[in-house]
Each structure stands twice: as structure tokens, then as C-alpha cells.
Amino acid sequence: MKRYVILFLFSSLTVFSQTKYSISTTKNQLKWLGNSSLGGNGHDGFVKVSSGLILVSATNQIMKGNFEIDMNTIKSIDEKAKDKDKDNGLDEHLKSNDFFSVSKFPKAYFTIEQAKASIVQPNQYMVNGTLMIKGIANKIQFPAEIIFEGNNIKVKAIFFINRQLWGITYDSPSLFGFAKEAAIANEIKLTLDLIFEKQP
């Protein structure tokens, strides 16, 4: 009986020793880039991470995290998009059912399940988690630079996801039996530059 009490107290102390870090609403960037299937001629822009929280242990280990992405904020910034459509119709097209079906799925979600530190390179981690877009959840993995700096945590990462895994197949080269210049590459490049602030 005594053993179980000790284990319970230890697990309780572990939970209570976790520190919360919330994402800065003014200092976060999630940039996207989509190219044609033959490379180049693509568009890039941003979408806002509207909320995010990570839990960190007393030894600065990231235990878990949850993030919410506001798909209504998706916005292209490249000059090609502006020149092509002065009303910025590309943004509305991205929000349509051809792509992210934002009216039905206004939020995307990412959950950190593990952030494993490199034993060779300082501040380098392999992040594993689940990304949900359009109500479809898929496991993803990507390398990230995570720096603990005072009361802040800085996260930077560059990685790719395959849009087909989330049911986004519009103008996919996979739909054609040959190379099509106008086709849109399945891979979307994502660049993260996030700051998390320690909570009292």
C-alpha cells in the first residue's frame, strides 16, 4: 500500500511541476508555399496560429502541445497572385471546397505527441504529432530548432506535407497520366517561426 502511495505522489508532483507556455499571438508565423508540379510558378503566403499551448517538464522536456490554426486567415502575399487577380481571388479559392473547405472546417489542429531532443546537435528536436485538416487526421514528423531563452521558447522548422493525405486533390499531378504544367504539386512547404511565453 505504501508503494502505491509513493507512486501516486511522484506522478502528482510530475504533473504539477509542468510549466505552461502559450504561443505569442503577435509573434508567430506559419508560412506556406505551393508550387506547380514542374517547380516554380507557385504562390506563397501565411496563415495564423490562433492559439497554442505546450507543457514543459522541470527538466525542460516538452511533454505535449496543442495548436489551433485559423484557416480563415489564409492569405497569399506573392506579387504573381496580386497581378493575376486584383481582388485576390486566390485566397477565396484556397478557402473553397477545391482546397480547404474553410466554411465547413474553419480550424485546423496540430497536437504534439513527442518532441525528442537530438543527442548530437543542441537545440535540435524531432517532433511527432497529429495534424488535422478538413476533419482528417494524419501523423506527421519533422525536425525543429527549439531554443529555451529566458521566459520564452523559440521554435523554427521547415518541412513538407502531402496535401492528398487530407483529401485536397484539386489539379493534382496524380490525376494526370502525364506531366501537366498547370498542375499543382502535392507537397506544400511549411515554415514555422513561433515564440511561446511562459505562463505564471
Radius of gyration: 20 Å
- Whole-number mean pLDDT: 86
Say what the CATH topology is.
Answer: Lipocalin
Q: How many H/I helical runs?
A: 3
The count of DSSP E runs of length 2 or more, i.e. the number of strands, is 8
Oligomer: single chain
Q: State the end-to-end distance.
A: 35 Å
Question: How would the global form be characterised?
Answer: globular
Strand content: over 45%
CATH class: Mainly Beta
CATH architecture: Beta Barrel
The largest pleated sheet is described as: 8 strands, antiparallel, barrel
Task: Describe what this molecule looks like in 3D.
The protein has a single domain, classed as Lipocalin (Beta Barrel). Strand 2 and strand 3 (62-76) form a beta hairpin. It starts with a helix and ends with a strand. It is built from three helices and eight strands. It has an eight-stranded antiparallel β-barrel. It is mainly beta and 200 residues long.
What's the SSE blueprint?
Blueprint: H1 2-16, E1 19-36, E2 43-56, E3 62-76, H2 79-84, H3 89-95, E4 107-117, E5 124-133, E6 136-149, E7 152-162, E8 184-198
Could you name the key traits of this structure?
mainly beta; Lipocalin; 8-stranded antiparallel beta barrel; 3 helices; 14% helix
Summary, kept brief:
This protein has 200 residues and is mainly beta. The chain has helices spanning 2-16, 79-84, 89-95, and strands at residues 19-36, 43-56, 62-76, 107-117, 124-133, 136-149, 152-162, 184-198. It has 3 helices and 8 strands.
